[in-house]
Amino acid sequence: xxxxxxxxxxHQACTTISxxxxxxxxxxxxNKWADCVHCGMCLESCPTYELxxxxxxxxxxxxxxxxxxxxxxxxxxxxxxxxxxACLDCRACTTxxxxxxxxxxxxxxxxxxxxxxxxLTGYRKTVSNFFLHRLFPHQNRLNTVGGLLKFYxxxxxxxxxxxxxxLKIMPDxxxxxxxxxxxxxxxxxKKYKNQNVxxxxxxxxxxxxxxxxxxxxxxxxxINEATxxxxxxxxxxxxxxxxxxCCGALHVHAGDREMxxxxxxxxxxxxxxxxxxxxxxxxxxxxxKEYAELFREEPEWxxxxxxxxxxxxxxxxxxxxxGYEQPQAEIKTRITYHDACHLAHGQGVRQEPxxxxxxxxxxxxxxxxxxxxxxxxxGIYNITNPEMAGAVLESKMENVPDDVxxxxxxxxxxxxxxxxxxxxxxxxxxxxxxxxxxxxxxxxEDGLRGQE
Amino acid sequence: MGLKGLKxxxxxxxxxxxxVGDRSILHHKEDLLAYDCDGFTIHKYLPKAVVFPxxxxxxxxxxxxxxxxxxxxxxxxxxxxxxxxxxxxxxEVVISLVKMKxxxxxxxxxxxxxxxxGFVNLKLTNSISDKGYYYAPxxxxxxxxxxxxxxxxxAGGAHCLKYGVxxxxxxxxxxxxxxxxxxxxxxxxxxxxxxxDLLGLITGSEGTLxxxxxxxxxxxxxxxxxxxxxxxxxxxxDGSHAVSDIISAGIVPAALEMMDKTAIExxxxxxxxxxxxxxxxxxxxxEVDGIAAGxxxxxxxxxxxxxxxxxxxxxxxxxxxxxxxxxxNRKTGFxxxxxxxxxxxxxxxVIPRSRLPEVLNRINQIxxxxxxxxxxxxxxxxxxxxxxxxxxxxxxxQTELALSAGxxxxxxxxxxxxxxxxxxxxxxxxxxxxxxxxxxxxxQAQTDIREVFNPENLLNAGKLFPSPGRCAEVxxxxxxxxx
Lengths: 452, 483
What we know:
The complex is a heterodimer of chains A (452) and B (483).
Chain A: H1 5-10, H2 12-19, H3 30-34, H4 47-52, H5 59-70, H6 78-86, H7 92-96, H8 103-117, H9 122-135, H10 139-143, H11 145-154, H12 158-163, H13 188-191, E1 206-210, H14 215-219, H15 221-233, E2 236-239, H16 249-253, H17 257-270, E3 277-279, H18 282-289, H19 299-309, E4 312-314, H20 315-322, E5 333-337, H21 341-347, H22 351-358, E6 363-365, H23 381-384, H24 386-398, E7 406-409, H25 412-424, E8 430-433, H26 434-451
Parallel strand pairs in A: 1-2, 1-3, 3-4, 5-6, 5-7, 7-8
Chain B: H1 11-20, E1 25-26, H2 29-32, E2 49-51, H3 56-68, E3 73-76, E4 93-96, E5 103-107, E6 112-115, H4 121-128, E7 133-134, H5 147-153, H6 160-163, E8 170-176, E9 182-185, H7 198-202, E10 211-218, E11 220-221, E12 225-233, H8 236-248, E13 255-260, H9 261-269, E14 282-290, H10 292-308, E15 311-316, H11 320-331, H12 333-336, E16 343-346, H13 356-370, E17 374-378, E18 387-391, H14 398-415, H15 434-437, H16 440-453, H17 472-482
Parallel strand pairs in B: 2-4, 3-4
Antiparallel strand pairs in B: 1-2, 5-6, 6-10, 7-11, 8-9, 8-10, 12-14, 12-15, 13-14, 13-17, 16-18, 17-18
Pfam families (chain B): FAD-oxidase_C, FAD_binding_4
Protein name (chain B): Glycolate oxidase
GO molecular function (chain B): FAD binding; oxidoreductase activity
């Protein structure tokens, strides 16, 4: 029996799909690019377009190319890879876009296809494997800081780490703070290993679970400690689920969606009992709010991911929304605030951290022009695309006001990158996390009370 | 970033690269695809190459090379044009001017500024606002479009009702002619030079007469006061009549914008909603500015007019933040259509203000006949309509349907004594519609002017005028053949 003409018509959609040059599962989502009408409103928001002036390095250009592969016009090859991987995934275009096109989601999906079509080789493979497979998913290895520090020394970033407070070298004029600065602490996951709940100081109002993060807990355990202090002080019991893992953002940014899914599943299960999941790293928070994106082809996990994501909240927004005690002690400092991309563009959190800083007596906030422009850190972008990352950092540093003593932000990747900028351009600002400053203010208040 | 080595055998690519450098030329298909259209996406053509000159001299050398080797070429800015003026229909060498993006000088005393063509429109205002000045032409794409592109298209904007379009703000131009020669026109801000108005001719010539490489513009002192009104109507014709009434009352608003129900659905579904009621039929966004003394009186007159026309609700912006929200909602309106439709085609007809109600009715009819939704977001004050035809290019036949619905809208404008473009230009989109408003002889007269500047027609060919296959140029060719 021959094929009837009417049947052929019904299969038209299949014919269209077969044109696509995306050959693996989980391809870029057609509905995402269907929102883009190519108006160009995204152009000026894009750091890589600003630097190159080339439209394949602009959001609408990238969306156009991603769509062109699906239409069979081009292949997934090196020339296509260049613009897709040169994207910082900073999401500034998402803020600028009148139609809410999810450019970041498309980029990550396209990277997933590229990584499968063109596996990494050579130096990039080594770097990528080291970070993404052998280091971040394994907390015990991360805790063996030695290897990490060695890498940092080799890449000239040791001084950077010092700037961030790990080794507690501070400008003289901030010596006043030394007394209230936290000691170099061990990772909080290790420290509270045998403690089911870190109890709130005073009456318990809420119970929250904390993502301690992979890099955060090793390099910036003092920030995790500060986060716990600030949360417990404001009536929160804090739980640290022990089987949590790296959020997977770096893997997804790099196109390793399989590993991303694996880590996501582990976290979804680890935080199953939590009512609220508090994150102090913008990149992790944004990723965890988007877990469902990874499971478009696994309905059961898609559902779980959605309810997991609904519980995720950045610490600054959580404190702001649930209320916090205004510190009484004065921290006299001039400070500016940098919007981490995955906080401002990724999660729409802009005013909350600023309000917290403004609530600390003595803090004088100086506005940073283009505060929500990417600093160039972008996960491990500064390692994989050093030239572009350097140029992005340079224009960021030009916007840091001259006369501030500190730059506050809410993401560890930005903290490292900005510290590098401070170092490289001979500036002397201290890089702090928003909750650190709040914690210091509380500590100072307690100290003064103790003296009385 | 950019290219790693040139990797080509094409001698033209190699020679063009010698002029601008290996890192300032694109020639791989994957990169060129990003340049196969501009804000008008219905037709797509790959360029031969894209080059990024850094100064006038490089532009001149590129143009000379193309001209000597008979390579078609065109200039491109941010590529946000809505009529396809920067689409390389003949596989052109695209000369992108985005790297020429400096603000060269500002002369506050004589109220003028000199910019390179790739300088973004809004950046000019941002650069001079601390001194209390601004650049008036404000196309909705001003966040990203370039002033060079604005000159090519003679761009308008919401505030052009009171302040005029781009041509009213251009004081001088440096132009690279299609043979590579660099000329300067305009007398650096001295108004009304003797001789023909070449500035007026180049401005709005859609990149067919030369490539502008330096622009002297007029800058204005910020108005002392500014008030913005938002009015919601249950009936489109009440809204339309209110527009005419406001102007008849002797008020010249800085801006007088209108959106219809479908447009409101779009902007409210998109990234910058302000909470307009979804069930109203039309809204007006009205802004008055000037010396503080008369503003309140004008506002109360406007409120009265709206009330007389059965307005459901009318309010004055309480602060700058509210005003900014209303404008962001309006200015991102076209892009916002992406939230309710995969594709759109925007038209740009102009009509006498008094004919608004009947033309809007006609557009509504066209929508019903074609089965495609049409949203209207437009500059009501100067009768500049923007019907946005919503369609889905993935559905076979819809693109053609949208094009013919768009064309019918322009016919409706021409029928009431209006014209086919107010500010977006003709480009490739409205070439055939030029016949709605010009006779063959009139079109011929214009192509004769083009020939003076662009005799080989290598620069941006196939734009602005109907294709020769159906127009006077053919008759001319036939005539010449007969001789």
